[in-house]
Amino acid sequence: MPDSSDAAPIPDDESPSLSASDAAISRRNLPEPAVGRLSLYYRELYRLRDAGTHSINSRELGKLVNVSPAVVRRDLSALGTIGRRGVGYTVELLIEAIGGVLGSGHQWQVILVGVGSLGDALLRYRGFERLGFRLVSALDANPDRIGTSIGGVRVRDASELAQVLSDFSPDLAILAVPAEKAGEVAGELVAGGITGILNFAPTTLRLSSAIAVVNVDLASELQRLAFSVQQRK
Amino acid sequence: MPDSSDAAPIPDDESPSLSASDAAISRRNLPEPAVGRLSLYYRELYRLRDAGTHSINSRELGKLVNVSPAVVRRDLSALGTIGRRGVGYTVELLIEAIGGVLGSGHQWQVILVGVGSLGDALLRYRGFERLGFRLVSALDANPDRIGTSIGGVRVRDASELAQVLSDFSPDLAILAVPAEKAGEVAGELVAGGITGILNFAPTTLRLSSAIAVVNVDLASELQRLAFSVQQRK
């Protein structure tokens, strides 16, 4: 697997992992697309580790995520000097370093507001936990949902939101309520100390720039796809 | 609502809508982020039309999607000359023009493969139809799902995929199967004439560049959010 064209040259024999402050430094320099790619590398590296692979080079890793080896090397060099010339990268160390930068070293407490069919799917989704995201509570206004347990999480009454925020002090919230409710709920989340919102409601949240928001609009994703198909014609 | 600083100057009194070939031309020049923003404008314009609003200027539209008026004007000028100095934009014409560029003038036939909890949520999602996306069929391998009807769509046996592709000649497919099945199913979809895939499976599809793929990985979106929260600290 290793190839000699790979990785940043390191005179030293050691492959140091990143310290917390290294991670903080490299975080500032990472452009948005690189963050997306690191997340994809991370996903593949997890799979490789599960399959018993110990090392990988930039060509192999690039192939797994449809990215050129040069881009892989550039992205990973932003993490510090974690590759070894002629050996490539140690899967375990890469997972640690990327996880550190992406914040998966931290245990993130997450709450879900809105348990419709999408919220239901999110509660059942098994991909969050191992990335360090723990769904600690879910809330909905529908009496048929309240009190049920989905994916191991009990659904609480939406009116208890302030109490839930105070009990768990979650970092992040997933917002899966209808568009017309989203602004009001987002305001309550921020007032309760939430610093990041993953917003599935098809509307633009207008919040202080201190609050991080990532929007996922399923219909917009289909539009992007249709656009991309037309461009290829 | 109109303000005089708004829109590209048009000497003519008419606000022409875009012809199909105009749309094809402007499509080539649109960078990816502009496509995403057009999709957001489109969403807000629909809401405005439903609320009875007839015209809007770039400042107002920008405010609705957290974008500066200058960016709005630049994005919309790529659609051709559809604004009027001192009047702003006609909501109806903007919807038509953006819809044309994004491909929502076309009726897209879409199939869904994989009716787990996410697939279930996608079938119940009401945001696709009015953007021109019609879910014509859904398939799953789970006997408990096969034959049930969700969101008005009957779930068929996954083994009938080739038949479904031949019956409906769909343009697009939504892939919501487990990662380990995704590559195989994607291959069958492409063999059956699908030209675009919205991929929810947490894996990178390796397909011909003639096939458009948009990936949505829910765990990666949470990672992006956590990264963004850390950057603000």
Automatic annotation (TrEMBL), chains A, B:
Region (Disordered): 1-23
UniProt organism field: Stieleria marina
Protein name: Redox-sensing transcriptional repressor Rex
Keywords: Cytoplasm, DNA-binding, NAD, Repressor, Transcription, Transcription regulation
Listed PANTHER family: REDOX-SENSING TRANSCRIPTIONAL REPRESSOR REX, REDOX-SENSING TRANSCRIPTIONAL REPRESSOR REX 1
InterPro entries: CoA-bd, NAD(P)-bd_dom_sf, Rex_DNA-bd_C_dom, Tscrpt_rep_Rex, WH-like_DNA-bd_sf, WH_DNA-bd_sf
Superkingdom, taxonomy of origin: Bacteria
Record-level GO BP terms: negative regulation of DNA-templated transcription; response to redox state
Assembly and binders: Homodimer.
Function (record text): Modulates transcription in response to changes in cellular NADH/NAD(+) redox state.
One GO cellular component term: cytoplasm
SMART domains: CoA_binding
Skewed-composition ranges (Low complexity): 1-10
DNA-binding region per UniProt: 40-79
Residues given in the record as NAD(+) binding sites: G114, V115, G116, S117, L118, G119
Molecular function GO labels: DNA binding; DNA-binding transcription factor activity
One Pfam family per UniProt: Put_DNA-bind_N
Annotated ranges, domain CoA-binding: 104-204
Family membership: Belongs to the transcriptional regulatory Rex family.
Localization in the cell: Cytoplasm
